[in-house]
Structure formats: C-alpha cells, structure tokens
Amino acid sequence: MGDKLSIVALRRGKEESLERRHPWVFSGAIEKITEGSKPLAEGDVVDVVTKQGDFIARGHYQIGSIAVRVLTFEKEAIDQQWWNNRVAKAKELRATIGMVGNSSTTCYRLIHGEGDLLPGLVVDIYGTTAVVQCHSVGMYLSRHAIVEAIREAYGELIEAIYDKSSQTLPYKAELGAIDGYLWGRNAEKENVVLENGLKFKVNWEEGQKTGFFIDQRENRDLVRQYSRGRRVLNTFCYTGGFSVAALAGGATEVVSIDLSERAVKLADENMKLNFGEDAPHQAIACNAVEYLKDIDEDFDLIILDPPAFAKHHKVLGNALQGYKKINVRALQKIRPGGILFTFSCSQAVSRDLFRTTIFTAAAIAGRRVRIIGQLTQPADHPINIYHPEGEYLKGLVVYVE
Fold it and tell me: Helix 241-248 crosses helix 217-226 at what angle (to 10 degrees)?
C-alpha cells in the first residue's frame, strides 16, 4: 500500500468546470482539505472530490489562486509508467504533424503544458537536446521522472536534457532551483538548429524562454512569403527570427530593433550565419515604440511582436493601451500598400479583444486596413479543447492602403 493522498473537497457546485474537464481548481472553490498519510506540501499529488466525497480528479497541489493543476481524471497511479505514457503520446502527436525526424526543422515543442495534459510543464527539443522548463512545484519535483520518460521515448535521438526552471517556478516556493543538465551534456560549443531550412544559433543556458521562440515558426514562414521586394522592419526582434525569414523571402533590406543589445547582436549573427557578412541588414538596440515615431513611411512590411504586455487580467487595461499605441504608430507610418504583422502573446488578451484593439488603432491612424491573415500558434503548441486559455498567441496580417 502506498501513501494515502490528501483530499481536496470542493464546495457545492464547484465541480462543474472539472466535469467539463477544465484542468484547474481555483482556491476559492475549495471547501476543505483533509491531509493524507503525511502533511500536505506544495507539489504533492492530491485527489479532488465533490462535497459529497465523489472522486473527480487527481493533480498537483500548489499555493496560489490555482490550487490544483489536474494530471488525470482517472483513479490511476502517477508513477513512472504514467509519465512514460504521457510523454510518448506527446511525441506521437509531433510525429503525426511531421516534426520528429524532420531534416529541415530540428527544433520544436514536445510538451506544451495543458495542451499535452501535463499542466505546468514545457519541453522543447533542439536537435539532440531537450530543454525542460517547470512552471509548478509539482512538475519540478517530478523532473527526474520526466527525464526518464523523455529518454524512454527518444532513446539515442536525445543526448542531453537541460533544466531551465529557475526563472519560471513560483518564487515563494523557495526551491533553490539552479539551471543545469539533468542528464548528459551538450558537447557543441555553438548550438545551431534549423527552422524551415534556415539556421539559428540557440543558447538555452542564457537565452529567453528555452532559448528560441519556437511558437512563431509558421508565422515566420508567412513573413518569408510576403517579403519579396519589400523593406522590412522587425521590432522586438529578439534573435532575429522574423528578420532571417524576411531576407530569405527576398526582402530588399531588413532593420531589426530590440531594447536588448545582446538580442540585436544575436539577430545580426543569425543574419550572417544564413546570408554572409554583406547581408542587407541593420540591427539597432533601441526602444521600438520610440523608433516607430520617426520612420516616415520608410518600410512596407512591419512586424510587431512585443513581449506579453499582460501576464494576468489585473493589468489588462494597461496592456491594451500598449498594444494600441504601437499599432497606431506602425499604421500611421507604414507605406501605402504595406503589410503589418501584429501579435499578442498575452493569455489574458482574447482573440476578439486583440482584434478590437487593432480596429481602434486603424481608426485612430485614419488608414484603410483589411485583414488578410489571422494567425495563431503552431500544431506543436496544441490547445486542449477544454482549456481555451491555452490559445495564447494571436496575430493579424493586415494590408494598409
């Protein structure tokens, strides 16, 4: 007999969202907690039951507004075989969409939190290295089981597994997490991956997120299709993903803007990696919003891909003002016949709200604007149909007269 799990009992009627298979239990829905064989600690696996005591779900307990992240709606052991099965199913989805063993694209997301029924966990593949990022204490405490499951699923295809959870875990958990290799070690001095045949340097040890913004892969490819003969401005460029795609598509010149000097240096390096020293590319470290003030119709394709302005609903109003401001400036300054790619990666900003914000920006700018594309995250960032919050990336492609 194993340890008896602690039991989280819900208030009357609060089980309805779980019965619709939404994977979160909010702290306000809890009636009482009965401890099991040991005192309840953050990260423990708990059972969630109705007020009457009927089993609903099993998941990781955490401190905060989301009190339980559901791992399963079945009474099943969360053991090594369970982890192996979940990771194997995630890999199977990526094989189905053509990501595993793809010679022209060697980086993709293997596990996308709730989208892969593993809330609080992200795993990205960069060639032969898997990068793990835990967003919950429960996932962090399970990291060694996760490593074994990845090794079981990939065998010799994976040579190293790196943990980059120190910046994503709840800071109040005080886990003392230090980034580092959980298994193996990457032998390459310079990590270069392929995306649709284009080369990118990735530094998962020091870069943002897991090292690269994989979720914009298909949208970068669309920029590539629209860039021929156009002068392109890529704001919030990070390591220059959109910039490389634009030049590959035949842009006459590309200007990359980011507040981070390190980011624009990497963008320049990625341009040279693909197109040599004489690439028609200018990388500038400056404030993108300020830069947009003075461009005077110099560009006929502009990309606005800012960081998340709203991490949660409390700052939604300020975030919408931020999106409106940068879009007004871009729409005022873009050349007639220009194309604007504009994005929001804020989960708190719905697709309809983002579209309304761009509508408002267009009206203020006084330009005739038509939507020619509606964009989202790629298939390796799947959305659990019971968890619509997982659709965090929204984008519009607009034609500006």
Answer: 40
Q: Which domain-ending residue is among 133, 157, 192?
A: 192
What does the angle CA 8 – CA 14 – CA 20 come to, to the nearest 5 degrees?
A: 100
State residue 24 phi and psi, 5-degree precision: -120, 145
Bridge pairing between strands 231-235 and 253-258: parallel
Range of the domain at 247: 213-400
The owner of tokens 């997490």 is: 177
pTM of the complete model: 0.94
Q: Does residue 349 fall inside a structural domain?
A: yes
Give me the amino acid identity at 371.
I
The total of structural domains in the chain comes to 3
Q: Are residues 11 and 41 in the same domain?
A: yes
Is residue 345 part of the annotated active site? The answer reads yes
Distances (CA, A) of 326 to 34, 234, 236, 256, 269: 50, 13, 11, 16, 27
Catalytic residue among 107, 134, 237, 345: 345
d(CA 355, CA 359): 6
pLDDT digits over 137-189, tens only? 999 999 999 999 999 999 999 999 999 999 999 877 789 999 999 999 877 76
